[in-house]
């Protein structure tokens, strides 16, 4: 199946292009980007131009930041093409509800992806936690924004989500592996004096779970979560890729193919079955944190 990739930035180049190249189902047929290119692939600078020129491309995958994404997403769906969205699926919840309705009306598939849910340890963690009573949980998601998002000023603009851009990956895993819906009871966010989005956030959940997200971590990076349960201790490390039970590393699922190849395999099934997959639960928790959270102003930040 032919696919076009829109927004040829860091994640498109690092993950989407190789995942599509390795897929038996997908052929990268066009790109849309003001400045990015993929060698040997027909390049357009605007979405309208691409949709008009290539009616044979049935599926479009968007790797744009959340704010410019909605207008492009609407245009793709109105043109009757299937649509795959990088996380987070929009700048607001309402936007994604609108896209869901539009996809349904057009009879096409919409996939709001959460790549971290495809990490090697996630399915095993979910299976192990089922039926156990959760006593407490702790999430630490601390990374260096200069290393992972070099020069990406959009991330600190309104709608860019700041530290929730990686933090939502932790929330996507949490909402996948826990047997009951999470309830956010409190939050505290640190906003740099010169920016519109938080550089750090601490969240409390009714299930006795705390999360600590921080973009200022230098040296070793941490993407860990740990749970005390009635049946022992579970830890997911390396962004969900390493699973430990009672301190011992367990073998990951050998048939899992890696995060982005797994997303494209899911998209194949959705398109073939004309289904959509849109789970907004991670994004609802971020919206709750912005609604309920206390705000601190901290030192200005420059890349
Ligand atoms: P990026 O490197 O800044 O690339 C963003 C792309 O979108 C570029 O190709 C950019 O320019 C295009 N774009 C179009 N309109 C834009 C606007 N108004 N402002 C900024 N860029 C605009 O960002 P990225 O890291 O690839 O992230 C893109 C999405 O992927 C985000 O939603 C992010 O959460 C998600 N993601 C990122 C990572 C990561 O590690 N970086 C991991 C997983 C998911 P052109 O028009 O020139 O193409």
UniProtKB/TrEMBL annotation:
One of its GO terms (molecular function) is nucleotide binding. SUPFAM superfamilies: NAD(P)-binding Rossmann-fold domains. Residues 1-111 form the Gfo/Idh/MocA-like oxidoreductase N-terminal domain. Pfam families: GFO_IDH_MocA. InterPro entries: Gfo/Idh/MocA-like_OxRdtase_N, Gfo/Idh/MocA_oxidrdct_glycsds, NAD(P)-bd_dom_sf. This is Gfo/Idh/MocA family oxidoreductase.
């Amino acid at each position: 199946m032919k696919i076009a990739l829109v927004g040829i930035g860091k994640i498109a180049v690092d993950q989407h292009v190789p995942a599509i190249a390795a897929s038996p189902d997908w052929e990268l047929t066009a790109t849309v980007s003001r400045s990015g290119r993929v060698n040997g692939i027909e390049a357009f600078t605007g979405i309208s131009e691409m949709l008009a020129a290539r009616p044979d491309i049935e599926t479009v995958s968007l790797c744009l930041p959340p704010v410019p994404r909605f207008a492009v997403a609407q245009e793709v769906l109105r043109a009757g093409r299937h649509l795959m969205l990088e996380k987070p699926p929009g700048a607001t919840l309402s936007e994604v509800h609108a896209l869901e309705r539009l996809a349904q009306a057009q009879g096409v598939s919409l996939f709001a992806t959460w790549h971290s849910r495809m990490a090697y340890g996630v399915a095993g963690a979910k299976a192990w936690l089922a039926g156990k009573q959760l006593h407490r949980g702790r999430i630490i998601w601390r990374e260096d924004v200069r290393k992972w998002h070099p020069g990406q000023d959009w991330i600190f603009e309104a709608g860019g989500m700041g530290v929730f851009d990686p933090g939502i990956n932790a929330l996507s895993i949490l909402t996948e592996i826990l047997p009951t819906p999470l309830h956010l009871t409190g939050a505290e966010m640190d906003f740099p004096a010169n920016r519109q989005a938080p550089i750090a956030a601490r969240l409390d959940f009714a299930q006795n779970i705390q999360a600590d997200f921080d973009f200022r971590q230098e040296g070793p990076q941490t993407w860990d979560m740990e749970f005390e349960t009635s049946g022992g201790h579970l830890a997911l490390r390396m962004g969900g890729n390493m699973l430990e039970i009672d301190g011992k590393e367990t073998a990951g699922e050998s048939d899992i193919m890696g995060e982005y190849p797994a997303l494209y395999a899911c998209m194949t099934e959705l398109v073939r079955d004309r289904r959509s997959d849109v789970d907004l639960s991670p994004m609802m928790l971020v919206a709750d944190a912005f609604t309920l959270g206390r705000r601190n102003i901290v030192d200005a930040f420059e890349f």
